[in-house]
Amino acid sequence: MENKLPTIKEIAKQLNVSVSTVSRALSDHPRIGLRTKMQVQQLAKDLGYEPNAKAISFKQKKSFVVGVVLPFIREEFFSQAISGIEAAAMESNYTILFGQSYDDVEREKTVVEAMRKQQVDGLLISLSKETNTYDHLRLLEKYNIPVVYFDRVPPFENANKVYCNLYKGTVEMIGWLVSRGYKRIALLNGPEKLGASKERLKGYIEGHSRKKLKVDMQLVEVTDLSKEGTYAAMENLLRAKHQPQAIITFNEYVHMDAVQYAQLQNKQVNKEIVFASYANLPITTYTAHPPLVSVEQYPYGQGEKAMEIMITLLQEKKEEGLRLDHCYTEEIPATLVMHPAVRGQL
Amino acid sequence: MENKLPTIKEIAKQLNVSVSTVSRALSDHPRIGLRTKMQVQQLAKDLGYEPNAKAISFKQKKSFVVGVVLPFIREEFFSQAISGIEAAAMESNYTILFGQSYDDVEREKTVVEAMRKQQVDGLLISLSKETNTYDHLRLLEKYNIPVVYFDRVPPFENANKVYCNLYKGTVEMIGWLVSRGYKRIALLNGPEKLGASKERLKGYIEGHSRKKLKVDMQLVEVTDLSKEGTYAAMENLLRAKHQPQAIITFNEYVHMDAVQYAQLQNKQVNKEIVFASYANLPITTYTAHPPLVSVEQYPYGQGEKAMEIMITLLQEKKEEGLRLDHCYTEEIPATLVMHPAVRGQL
DNA sequence: TTGTAGGCGTTATCAT
DNA sequence: ATGATAACGCCTACAA
Q: How many CB pairs under 8 A join A and B?
């Protein structure tokens, strides 16, 4: 049915020149006869010649494919992030391999391994919440596969990473809440392993100290991000005699579960207890009780930036050989935003 | 820094055998000395030998990579679908290339083109809402790249596809609504080009006829799926003197916009006017006013099934050469589900 | 400016 | 049971 795809060899034969001439003509090699070049390019077009990507990636050890590993694509945060990645990738003719860790280290290892075996040019990854060993990622260096982390980044210095500084955002959030008259502010934080959780806590503490308030550690709870974990944490928070007037949740998925629990306990959400959170996802527009304020984390921008760094790394790699001593770190300032639905009310 | 990866050549040299022997030993070729086989496999393991994926995909014209193109990953429907695809893919050691069309045909063409150039083994695609020409997809046949459509499938017969029969689900939904006493039922449908829209309309009409009700075409409106489009359609529906008692929306994103509009018009959602929809996405659990009933479309299952079909196709291709005359069509029965949050209330 | 030849890692065909 | 060799499509010294 379908005739074989034309190759440079075919073009060479038809034009009675050598394959190297064709190869060079097609890649606009400087010293090649203008006339020949034109002929070759014309015939290539006529034949519908397209370079064989597989042959090239085999020969050049470069495939223009980068892997992306993230916890859950169904979370709007990550779907936005991958959209940013995709946009930056297309810009430079890169293509992306997709994999989810489902917040499970073992699965993360499996996926990373699969991508390594596929020999992706590089890997963009947002760590699983459980990840606290990094051998499976360090291994990639040995295979000379650059890694850029985004949002869920590892704690060590020598890595390429893009993330939001939630510390500042959290300090700002506490300030906002206090200025609104909320003094007893709870923090429903994420897994303690996560750097992002630590930053939130630091900001929480600093925010209090700036407002000359004492931190009550009874008001700090942790969830494993599951609905059950969040319910349990909420139970603890609501059990106290002095209930929190405000609750800051780890992210908007936790927020939604927390709100659900509060409602089961017949609390007036955003009245009796107000909620604040992180991410500012579009989907919250449609929810019954969005957080009053949210720390925007720019997932799209993070993805985009991460991919741009990756492209830079791959270019450097090509140019300077194997020198990948320096690291790129991009800290995107998180900003506090008020939810549109409540912006007028206050 | 990093020493070169071991190749079969290296193993051959160390063992003083030929590369062919090594190749055969590693692939468990039947007539090969047990002793040699053991030696080779042992050394391969010791050296940490791994087959060079790029070399193999070049030689074998097969990369174990399939492309996935869908409209919007941020829609939970598609993120579930790709998760099903990923699961089935991993099962058979396939890896997936990711691309979004953003419901734009031109972009769909670009992405499909990029994947073709990357020489994916096959393509899974859920069409953009605008797609009504199919040349860019038909082209793939010429390149011998099999395509499996899921959910948003093309209208012609000779294609591999997985989709939900929304006709039956819609008939069932009308039945349910009528039995609850709602007689004036509106349909806020999607773009008319979409097969899925046509099915909904057919079901809507059939549902009425089964209940001996007359269809009032004033109650059928169309949205282009944008918030503005949905608002406009809602405006028309609510302008009528005899307002609808129930509104069936194209999907739950349209639903959310529709509900938002209804609220702006001070309608009591799910009281004054009840809402029904399609997809039954988990996210609706968190929304203020989920649809009372929804036609579940099993996105995860669709993705999984689509990938399984793809794997079958790729196997057949290998075995029988180029004979791809027959097509796989999988029709998943859609089922009507009541929203958990309202299940008790009625 | 162009041609020749070797090689990337693997598999397959033909010998032995 | 094993080895030698060609071939996949492309690139790139090295020659001419």
A: 121
Instruction: Report DSSP state, residue B93.
Output: T
Contact A292, A299 (CB under 8 A): no
A58 touches strand C (CB under 7 A): yes
* pTM above threshold 0.90: yes
For B261-311, what is each residue's pLDDT tens digit? 999 999 999 999 999 999 999 989 888 899 999 999 999 999 999 999 999
User: Residue B217, class by beta-carbon neighbours within 10 Å (0-12 exposed, 13-18 middle, 19+ buried)?
Assistant: exposed
Residue A343 in contact with residue A194, Cβ under 8 Å? no
Q: Closest CA to D4 C1' — which residue? A: B18
Looking at domain B166-297+337-341, its CATH architecture is 3-Layer(aba) Sandwich (3.40)
By C-alpha distance, which of B99, B64, B8 is closest to A115?
A: B64
All residues of chain A having their beta carbon less than 8 Å from the beta carbon of residue B98 are: 68, 82, 86, 96-98
In this complex, which residue's CA is closest to the C1' atom of nucleotide C13? B20
Looking at the complex, does the CB of residue B87 fall below 8 Å from at least one CB of chain A? no
What are the backbone dihedrals phi and psi of residue B182, each rounded to the nearest 5 degrees, phi first?
Answer: -85, 120
| For chain B, domain boundaries | 13-50, 63-164+299-334, 166-297+337-341
Q: Give dist(CA A315, CA B149) in Å, integer.
A: 36
CATH class of B63-164+299-334: alpha beta
